[in-house]
């Protein structure tokens, strides 16, 4: 079946993309406005894009309340700072609460009974219950039509102690993080606990196997 994206309306293109590009990691973004009011919201158009410099990218669309920026984007534009937390299975329901389109003056962390923990490099707090958090400063804003791609430079990273396998070697016990990913539809998510191991093939092994085949 061919889907011609040049003829499809935006909503239909969106449905096809989110139904197939899965699972997507979730950026649980914590920001503050200039008055210090905290906002938290999840976004699944998100990923790590560079290690030198360390860059995370979050794509943010327009506010569902009407024309204009979502609170997250408005706060990032105003302060240049944000924290990206990752979502574990234990925090999934709290994350879902923060996805509600609450008024700007409402503190989503308080509504979801989450613990704000002071950051070390930026003013917005991180979510204490999140197993991983990245303190970021704004690197670049890239217009993408109806979305804005927020590129953030990672200044610091926090990982729960029990999920660090070897701090000296920077080894993380990834399965222990119990992270979830966004799937299709309005409410489907995926666990990351079930994995398959496919070792990379070296050029020497590829050449040997090809020659012996």
Strand content: 25-35%
Low-confidence stretches: none
Q: How much is the average pLDDT?
A: 94
Tally the beta strands.
13
Named CATH architecture: Roll
**How large is the count of helical segments?**
6
Helix proportion of residues, in percent?
A: 10-25%
Instruction: Report the C-alpha radius of gyration, rounded.
Output: 19 Å
Q: Biggest sheet: strands side by side, in what order?
A: 2-1-5-8-9-4-3
CATH class, anyone?
Mainly Beta
Number of domains: 1
What is the string of SSEs from the N terminus onward? HEEEEHEHHEEEEEEHEEH
Shape: globular
Report how far apart the termini are.
35 Å
- Helix/sheet category: alpha+beta
Find the CATH superfamily: Electron Transport, Fmn-binding Protein, Chain A
Assign the CATH topology.
Pnp Oxidase, Chain A
Main sheet attributes: strand count, strand direction, barrel closure = 7 strands, antiparallel
Question: Can you describe what's shown?
Answer:
The protein has 213 residues and is an alpha+beta fold. It has one domain (14-212): Electron Transport, Fmn-binding Protein, Chain A (Pnp Oxidase, Chain A), CATH 2.30.110.10. Helices cover 21% and strands 34% of the residues. The chain is built from six helices and 13 strands. The strands form four sheets. A seven-stranded antiparallel sheet has the order 2-1-5-8-9-4-3. Strands 6-7 form a two-stranded antiparallel sheet. The chain starts with 9 loop residues before the first helix and ends with a helix. The mean pLDDT is 94. Its cofactor is FMN. InterPro entries: Flavin_Rdtase-like_dom (IPR002563), Split_barrel_FMN-bd (IPR012349). This is Flavin reductase family protein. Residues 19-173 form the Flavin reductase like domain. Pfam families: Flavin_Reduct.
């Amino acid at each position: 079946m061919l889907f011609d994206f040049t003829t499809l309306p935006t909503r239909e293109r969106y449905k096809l993309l989110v139904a197939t590009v899965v699972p997507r990691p979730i950026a649980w973004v914590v920001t503050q406005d200039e008055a210090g009011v905290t906002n938290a919201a999840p976004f699944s158009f998100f990923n790590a894009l560079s290690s030198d410099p360390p860059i995370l990218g979050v794509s943010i669309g327009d506010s569902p309340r009407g024309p204009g920026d979502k609170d997250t984007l408005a706060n990032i534009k105003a302060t240049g700072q944000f924290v990206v937390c990752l979502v574990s299975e234990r925090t999934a329901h709290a994350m879902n609460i923060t996805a509600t389109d609450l008024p700007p003056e409402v503190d989503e962390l308080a509504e979801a009974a989450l613990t704000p923990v002071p950051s070390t490099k930026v003013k917005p707090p991180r979510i204490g219950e999140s197993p991983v958090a990245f303190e970021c400063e704004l690197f670049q804003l890239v217009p993408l039509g109806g979305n804005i791609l927020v590129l953030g430079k990672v200044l610091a990273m926090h990982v729960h102690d029990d999920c660090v396998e070897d701090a000296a070697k920077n080894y993380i016990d990834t399965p222990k993080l119990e992270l979830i990913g966004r799937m299709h539809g309005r409410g489907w998510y995926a666990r990351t606990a079930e994995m398959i191991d496919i070792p990379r093939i070296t050029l020497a092994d590829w050449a040997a196997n090809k020659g012996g085949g």
